[in-house]
Each structure stands twice: as structure tokens, then as C-alpha cells.
Automatic annotation (TrEMBL):
The keyword ATP-binding does not apply. Belongs to the glycosyltransferase GT106 family. InterPro entries: FucosylTrfase_pln (IPR024709), GDP-Fuc_O-FucTrfase (IPR019378). This is O-fucosyltransferase family protein. Pfam families: O-FucT.
Length: 421
């Protein structure tokens, strides 16, 4: 007997955005999350256990391969009536977006929650890359008008500080991702009341992964900030859309469906990717392992694959031998956009493109564990795109695809609060 996928996904999302995205890197699924400040690569582990039953998904007969039908996009449960009236602003909160879009959503959520709690005006952040001097304005990547409008009635937002206020006078305050009301009251608000203005820096501690799931006045605010504020500015969005359309065109034999694989050679070459983790599971998979995994779960040679690797590397040849329609950004980006969006290795534009294509692909395969996987999964679930396959070493010549669905797409993720209806 069939099961309504929308009902299943709605059940999955009965949780706060703090919990849903935070639990995506908790020890139930990953291990040894390394504290970084402000943000950084997260060295974690896959849980490739059997977490989903056959009856929970609907497969399509169209095309070749084990493609799954998308569910309906979920509607947010927060409304303007969810929030109390905005108080008179008592100062300013500033922050920067760092380390790529998978961190941006969490950094925005924490900043909005803090600003609302202390009654401050939030200043539009800048965007900073990993290299010194690699800075961009918010509006170069994201839609600033959408950001401001989405927070209307929640907090006050300004694009710049008044001319008579210097950023040098701000107190720098570190806050953990998924910052709680208790933490703000005890460690942030006193500094804000004393100094009048603060600059936030979010960090991602492993000790913060098993917090309780009780309702909080900040839940709706955090949900809105994570899912309702960040949209790409028109030019970047146009590039992403054109690349997705190109991938669909190349996927004619599978009815326009394609797979996105988060596979970056520079990460795979690090020592942390060699061998297994503490629980015996691998932290990342190389091109050969991904190719064999996809074949064994049923995808055929005509399947189109998008890699988050920007430019081709010899180590990827074996993947292309098995799946000839394997592409990087360099091979499918419009020629007139390459100079700007592929200007340097590891640029913010490249990370943003990978994040949004991975979020909108028909299937997502996280070859590397970490926050990118976690927040792409959260965005996909909200969109009804629940086919996320966790790779594994599979003995023999084939395997049931249902044994490799992400732990986030399972019946055990039932908690007390919903961001989506």
C-alpha cells in the first residue's frame, strides 16, 4: 500500500531549525566534530546504516535508474502573527558571513535570534572568504532587498552603520551555533547592555550537538532566518539556473534528471580522508568508490552527474569512464560567466553555485561528510527533494537503494516542533 510522501516528509520536519540542522552533524550520524572559530571544515563521519523502509518512498518508472519522485514543497509554518511587536532599537549587532553558504544560513539565524532577543538593529553582513582580503559585499551574492523585507516585523535591519558609529568600538562576542536564550541572557546581553553595540562570531562546537528539543520563543525566528532570508541576487541566480538547465538538457535519457555529488579533490587528498573513522565508517569517498556505489544501487552509464569540483582532475577519470556524462562547473558554466565566477580556486561564488545546484538536483550524494551535507539536506527536505544517498562500500554486484537513504530521511526524526506544514 502506498504512502503519501508529503505526509512522511511533513512528519520528518517536526523539529526546530536549530535541531534539524544541528542534529545533522550530531554524533548519531557523525563523529569528532572539530571546533572551529569562526567556522571551518568539519571532520565528521557517515552513518551508512539501514534507516529507511521500502514503503516510505515512491519510485518513478520514467527514465533509467532508481529515480524517486519529488514530494511537494512544504509551506513554512511561521507567519507575521508569530512574532511580537519589534521593540525600539537599543544598539547594533554586526557580523560577517564566512566559510561558504553552508555556514551562512546558520550565521544568519544566530545573528537574527541574538538581535531580536537584545532588541538591537541588525546590520547587513559582509562576506569574507578564507584568504586575507577576500571580501565581498552582501549584495554581490545575495538579494539584499529580499533579506531586509523578510525580516520586516521581526527585527530592524539597516544596510550600513550610521556615520558617527565606528566598528572599532564594538565588543566582539563569540556565540555557539544554535545559540539558546539562556546563553544570550547570561553571556551576550550583559555585554550588549554595557557596550551598546556588539559584533557576533558564530562557532560550531561538538559539545553543542545533543541539546534538548524543548520549544523556545526563538524557534520561529530561527526557522525564518534559516529558510526565509537568503536568496541569490539575480545575476548569480541566473548562472545557477543556466547550469541546471544545461544539466537537464544533457540528461535527456533520464528525463532531465541528474545527480549532484559533493566531491572535492582537495578535501579527499587530506590525511583525514584516508582510512576509516572511529566507528569503522568512512569520512569521505573518492571518485572510484562513488562510481561503483552508484552503479551498484542501479544508476546506468547514461546518468548525468554534477561534481562540486570546479575543474577537472586526473583522479576523476575513473568516474567519467563509468559515467561518461560527468561534469564540473568549468564544463557547463556559460562561457561569458567564467571569468567572473571561476576567477579563483575556492571563491565564494563557486561555493554558492555548488550549494544551490546540490540543493536542487534530483539526487544528492555527499561524498564528504560535514556541514555542507547537513545544510544541503535541510534545504532539500524543505523543497520536497528527499532523495539523498549516503555512499558506502558495497560487496557484490548490486544493492538495494533503500538501504542507503540519508538518516535525515527516516521515521526516527520525529520531534516536538515544526518549521514547515
Amino acid at each position: 500500500m502506498g504512502v503519501d510522501l508529503r505526509q512522511v516528509v511533513a512528519g520528518i520536519l517536526t523539529l526546530t531549525m536549530f535541531v534539524m540542522l544541528g542534529n545533522m552533524i550530531k554524533r548519531d550520524h557523525f563523529d569528532s566534530v572539530e571546533e572551529k572559530f569562526p567556522g571551518g571544515a568539519v571532520d565528521t563521519e557517515f552513518d551508512s546504516g539501514r534507516v529507511m523502509e521500502q514503503g516510505l518512498v515512491t519510485f518513478t518508472k520514467m527514465g533509467k535508474g532508481p529515480w524517486m519522485e519529488d514530494g511537494q514543497q512544504l509551506k513554512p509554518c511561521w507567519t507575521e502573527s508569530s512574532f511580537d511587536q519589534v521593540e525600539e532599537s537599543k544598539g547594533f549587532v554586526t557580523f560577517s558571513l564566512t566559510n561558504g553558504p553552508e555556514y551562512h544560513v546558520s550565521q544568519v539565524a544566530d545573528a537574527v535570534v541574538v538581535a531580536r532577543y537584545v532588541g538591537a538593529t541588525l546590520v547587513i553582513p559582509d562576506i569574507r572568504g578564507n584568504k586575507p582580503g577576500d571580501e565581498r559585499k552582501f549584495e554581490e551574492v545575495y538579494d539584499v532587498d529580499k533579506f531586509v523585507k523578510s525580516l520586516d516585523g521581526v527585527i530592524k535591519v539597516v544596510k550600513d552603520l550610521p556615520g558617527d558609529i565606528s566598528i572599532r568600538d564594538f565588543a566582539v562576542v563569540k556565540v555557539p551555533n544554535r545559540v539558546t536564550e539562556d546563553h544570550i541572557a547570561e553571556l551576550v546581553e550583559p555585554i550588549f547592555r554595557t557596550r551598546g553595540n556588539i559584533r557576533l562570531a558564530t562557532y560550531f562546537p561538538s559539545v553543542n550537538m545533543r541539546k534538548n528539543t524543548q520549544k523556545s520563543n526563538t524557534n520561529s525566528v530561527a526557522c525564518l532566518a534559516m529558510f526565509g532570508t537568503l536568496e541569490l541576487q539575480p545575476e548569480v541566480n541566473e548562472v545557477v539556473d543556466s547550469m541546471i538547465e544545461r544539466l537537464k538538457t544533457l540528461s535527456r535519457k533520464s528525463d532531465g534528471r541528474f545527480i549532484a555529488v559533493d566531491l572535492r579533490v582537495e578535501i579527499l587528498e587530506k590525511e583525514s580522508c584516508h582510512g576509516s573513522g572511529a566507528s569503522g565508517t568512512k569520512t569521505c569517498y573518492d571518485a572510484k568508490e562513488i562510481a561503483l556505489f552508484l552503479r551498484k544501487v542501479g544508476f546506468d552509464k547514461d546518468t548525468t552527474i554534477y561534481l562540486t569540483q570546479s575543474r577537472w582532475h586526473d583522479s576523476l577519470d575513473i568516474l567519467k569512464d563509468i559515467f561518461p556524462k560527468t561534469y564540473t562547473k568549468e564544463s557547463i558554466m556559460p562561457e561569458d560567466k567564467k571569468m567572473k565566477f571561476l576567477e579563483s580556486e575556492g571563491s565564494e561564488f563557486e561555493k554558492v553555485i555548488d550549494f544551490y545546484i546540490s540543493s536542487q538536483s534530483d539526487v544528492f550524494v555527499p561524498a564528504i561528510s560535514g556541514l555542507f551535507y547537513a545544510n544541503v539536506a535541510g534545504k532539500r527536505i524543505a523543497l520536497g527533494k528527499t532523495q539523498i544517498l549516503v555512499p558506502a562500500d558495497i560487496p557484490g554486484s548490486s544493492a538495494s537503494i533503500t538501504n542507503h537513504f540519508s538518516p535525515y530521511i527516516s521515521k526516527k526524526n520525529h520531534l516536538a516542533y515544526s518549521c514547515f506544514c
